[in-house]
Amino acid sequence: MEDIEEKRSKPSVRKRAAAIKPFRCKHLVAVLEEPTDIANIGAVVRNANALGVEKVYIVDPRGSLPDDWQDMRERRSLSKTSASAVKWTFVKRFDSTEACLSHLAQQGFVSIATSPHVKGKTSIYLDEGDYTPYAKLAVWFGNEGRGISAQAVDSCEMCVAIPMFGMIESLNLGTSTGIVLYEITKQRREYQCKFLRKGQRGERADPLPTVMARPSDDS
Asked: In the chain, which ranges are continuous DSSP H helix?
């Protein structure tokens, strides 16, 4: 199957890139801690790209992924499972949770963990949180089998859980990342369209659009 970008002309790719630029969530990173299934990695990268997350970090102690993003972009299995999203979303791998946490701390990121209630930590449901105060935010997702590590949780500002009301209280990694990242990107996009970040935190003189214009019938 042809890659998506191969089906588009270069001008149309540039036009799309320009159109989505104002809607990307700056300084928002999705972190996957020791994922084991390449299909899940691809699904998360696809979610991140579709929802406007700036970067994806992957804690990969087994070395199953290349160190260089350009090499990841050329890996067929990852390109296919992400529907080519890996070619458009920056992905960085780390050898350990400690290394990833250290990098985030050096860059001034605040981390939050997607995890059920953890004793001694601030724990909220997803829809109860305000994710706009953090200039730089990293959202951690755990391993498919055992969830997120205690080391990661200990370093996170709070734990966020998806409220569930069924007999089975679990979701696969692709689904859970989609739900969590949708809520967080929606809030941060609404915020950044109105307010400045970095040193100037005032309201924008000309607010950015909150949604992309729909294609016209004659386009």
From this structure: 10-20, 38-51, 69-74, 76-81, 97-106, 150-154, 173-192
- The pLDDT of residue 1 is 41
Tell me, what CATH number does 71's domain have? 3.40.1280.10
Tokens at 36, concatenated = 């084991």
Distances from the Cα of 152 to the Cα of 111, 113, 174, 205, angstroms: 9, 7, 20, 39
**Overall domain count for the chain:** 1
Whether residue 94 is contained in a domain is answered as yes
Is 145 part of any domain? yes
CA angle 103, 56, 155 (to 5 degrees): 45
pTM value is 0.83
Report yes or no: 37 and 145 within 8 Å, Cβ to Cβ. Answer: no
Is residue 219, in this structure, part of any structural domain at all? no
Q: Does 136 reside within a domain? A: yes
Q: Which residue, chain included where needed, has tokens 């989609």?
A: 178
Number of other residues whose CB lies within 10 A of the CB of residue 32: 25
Q: Beta partners for 29?
A: 55, 138
| pLDDT over threshold 60, residue 205 | no
